[in-house]
Write a structure and sequence with these properties.
Shape: rod-shaped
Number of helices: 9
Low-confidence stretches: 1-17
Oligomer: single chain
CATH architecture of the largest domain: 2-Layer Sandwich
Largest sheet: 7 strands, mixed
CATH topology of the largest domain: Beta Polymerase, domain 2
CATH class of the largest domain: Alpha Beta
Strand content: 5-15%
Radius of gyration: 34 Å
Structural class: alpha+beta
Mean pLDDT: 85
Length: 364
């Protein structure tokens, strides 16, 4: 298993905000975040029960042609750094200025907000980077209108491929339902991505637990603290996500059909499960710190046990050597022919006898 060799991004760095200028009016459009692609790209999927069409890299005018049609249109914009383009997009689809302000703030916390003819949902998508073994986060903003679902992403690449395939292949009930069900399907994909990341973290926790038992080191302890930081970041995103799903589920908005509520209840259960899993993993990570302390103490006890046994064996040997190392002339054994081998024999018997005694007592 690959190790976390690079420092993990902290919650502060992932959610850092560039402060707005003081005194700006509500709805002032300022992009907050990093530019992650060269130019924004529009794409769309337009479908009904009997027809389907999709196109990538289209103009805003092409997207505007889908407004007000009887079909369901999913229009996606990759790249939200172009303020003028986002503003024009919002005006074309009659979006509230506060909606556009939140979309441009890519460090926004997850939220759900209703307007007269639209609803805004902001969530975090998580990806597990196999190369660096780190969690990568991206904001997804979703606007639900009466005929359209508008999504805004920071860059290409998302967790919606299965939804696109379901629409294209006419599998399941998605082609038979309205934009509210499409919005649910997209939210469900985002929540499912949480479990993929949590699965990777579970593997990491198992690996660290095994290594801490066999060879506790400062490097492993550092990796445990890094993992705890990731779990804190996940919790800060999953917790409000669960709450916004609950708010969406109890919403009285006419944009959401009653038949979709049962699916939202299931999605809420998934959000609760994801949050519970994050909390359990946090407890497990904290337990790994205690495991490190216990493992280090155990190894220290084993070392001290060996050193104590060695010191205990050499105490009588040192005593005997000290006696015959004294500079007295009248010591009979000094002139005895077998004095030297006799002293060695006594020392060997003492050492072997003490080892046998320690072994019998199961001290090692």
């Amino acid at each position: 298993m690959r190790l976390f060799t690079q420092p993990l991004q902290t919650v502060t760095s992932l959610f850092r905000n560039k402060p707005k200028k003081i005194g700006l009016s509500p709805g002032s459009l300022i992009h907050v975040g990093e530019q992650k692609m060269e130019r924004p790209v529009f794409s769309y999927l337009d479908y009904s029960e009997d027809q389907f069409s999709s196109e990538t890299d289209v103009s805003l005018a092409t997207c505007l042609d889908l407004k007000g049609q009887q079909t369901v249109s999913w229009i996606n914009l990759d790249g939200v750094h172009d303020i003028s383009l986002v503003e024009a997009f919002g005006k074309a689809f009659d979006l509230h200025p506060l909606t556009l302000e939140d979309i441009l703030n890519t460090n926004h916390a997850p939220k759900f907000e209703e307007f007269e003819d639209s609803a805004l949902i902001i969530m975090k998508m998580f990806f597990f980077d196999e190369q660096s073994c780190q969690i990568r986060a991206e904001q997804i903003s979703l606007v639900l209108t009466r005929c359209n679902v508008l999504t805004f992403q920071e860059q290409p690449g998302d967790v919606f491929n299965e939804v696109r395939l379901r629409i294209e292949r006419k599998s399941g009930r998605i082609r038979q339902r309205g934009p509210d069900y499409l919005a649910y399907a997209l939210l469900d994909s985002v929540v499912d991505s949480y479990f993929h990341v949590l699965e990777k973290i579970a593997e990491r926790l198992d690996y660290l637990e095994t290594e801490l038992i066999s060879r506790p080191t400062q490097e492993l302890l550092h990796q445990v603290h890094q993992l705890k930081g990731q779990l804190i970041f996940l919790r800060k995103a999953v917790w409000p996500t669960r709450d916004l799903i609950g708010t969406l589920m109890h919403s009285e908005s006419t944009l959401i059909a009653d038949s979709t509520n049962i699916f939202l209840r299931d999605l809420y259960d998934h959000g609760v499960q994801a949050l519970d899993t994050v909390e359990n993993f946090r407890d497990t990570a904290s337990g790994l710190v205690d495991l490190y302390v216990s493992s280090v103490s155990q190894r220290m006890n084993e070392v001290m046990q060996v050193l104590t046994i060695m010191a205990s064996i050499f105490i009588p040997l040192t005593f005997i050597a000290g006696i015959y190392g004294m500079n007295f002339e009248l010591m009979p054994e000094l002139k005895w022919r077998y004095g030297y081998p006799m002293v060695w024999g006594i020392m060997v018997v003492c050492a072997v006898g003490m080892l046998w005694f320690f072994k019998r007592k199961k001290w090692f």
